[in-house]
């Protein structure tokens, strides 16, 4: 059976663990050459080896996505390693939750500006038919007393996604987004909250009609769809992937 992304070249910013890792492995399993970046070299190298084991070109670089110059250096390096660029996935998050200078700086610098900077660096290498997928969150769609910066900046990501789509349409580049709900994976936020904040974990679980947290692979499948030819007439959209969490049980 032909692999849907055979011959394609993909960059996943924030691709070493969790949702980013699943996105990178999903593209690789469908035949794409994949470059990933993140800050922590341990998980980064482990995921690179997983991608390589799928028989495709794998590239990885340790990058501080809060650093504009590091992004500017990484993207051309990744493009050279892959031999071109067809898909950019902007997945990184600084998880700025506290309503203070540090929380806002983390969310703005990584969740928003890494998308802007990564896209600006990538677009000159992209041809008609290419696509960008930005990862937002359902936190963008409701008020929160726990994570005001995170939610506000993720809302800005959704707005920018639509604006990007409008700006890049004349170049034949589609831009879409995915807004995940609560996703659980080893070493992730929700696994930690099982023990660090069990009351919040139980309340969040109770808010999901299916009675379970989402899996990273379930987000990755939607990202792959949006980047594929099956979505050739889809742009400026952000798709919620939350098992009905927004509408409640």
UniProtKB/TrEMBL annotation:
Keywords, sorted A to Z:
Oxidoreductase
UniProt source species: Bosea eneae
Q: What is this protein called?
A: SDR family NAD(P)-dependent oxidoreductase
Instruction: State the SUPFAM superfamilies in the record.
Output: NAD(P)-binding Rossmann-fold domains
Indicate yes or no for the key word Oxidoreductase.
yes
Top-level lineage group = Bacteria
Q: Kindly give the InterPro entries that the UniProt entry links to this protein.
A: NAD(P)-bd_dom_sf, SDR_fam
Q: Which GO terms describe its molecular function?
A: oxidoreductase activity
Q: What is its EC number?
A: 1.1.1.-
Q: Which family does it belong to?
A: Belongs to the short-chain dehydrogenases/reductases (SDR) family.
């Amino acid at each position: 059976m032909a692999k849907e992304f055979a011959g394609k070249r993909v960059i996943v910013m924030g691709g070493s663990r969790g949702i980013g890792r699943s996105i990178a492995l999903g593209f690789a399993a469908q035949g794409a050459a994949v470059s990933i970046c993140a800050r922590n070299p341990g998980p980064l190298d482990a995921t690179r080896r997983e991608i390589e084991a799928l028989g495709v070109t794998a590239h990885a670089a340790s990058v501080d996505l809060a650093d504009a110059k590091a992004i500017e250096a990484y993207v051309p390096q990744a493009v050279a390693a892959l031999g071109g660029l067809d898909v950019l996935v902007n997945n990184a998050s600084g998880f700025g939750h506290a309503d203070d200078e540090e929380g806002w700086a983390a969310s703005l610098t990584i969740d928003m500006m890494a998308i802007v900077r990564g896209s600006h660096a990538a677009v000159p290498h992209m041809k008609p038919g290419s696509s960008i997928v930005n990862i937002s969150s359902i936190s963008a769609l409701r008020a929160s007393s726990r994570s005001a910066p995170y939610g506000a900046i993720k809302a800005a990501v959704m707005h920018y996604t639509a604006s990007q789509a409008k700006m890049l349409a004349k170049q034949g580049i589609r831009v879409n987004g995915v807004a995940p709900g609560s996703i659980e994976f080893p070493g992730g936020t929700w696994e930690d909250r099982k023990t660090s904040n069990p009351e919040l974990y139980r309340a969040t679980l109770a808010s999901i009609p299916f009675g379970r947290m989402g899996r990273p692979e379930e987000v990755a499948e939607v990202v792959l769809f949006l980047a594929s030819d099956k979505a050739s007439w889809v742009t400026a959209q952000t798709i919620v992937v939350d098992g009905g969490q927004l509408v409640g049980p």
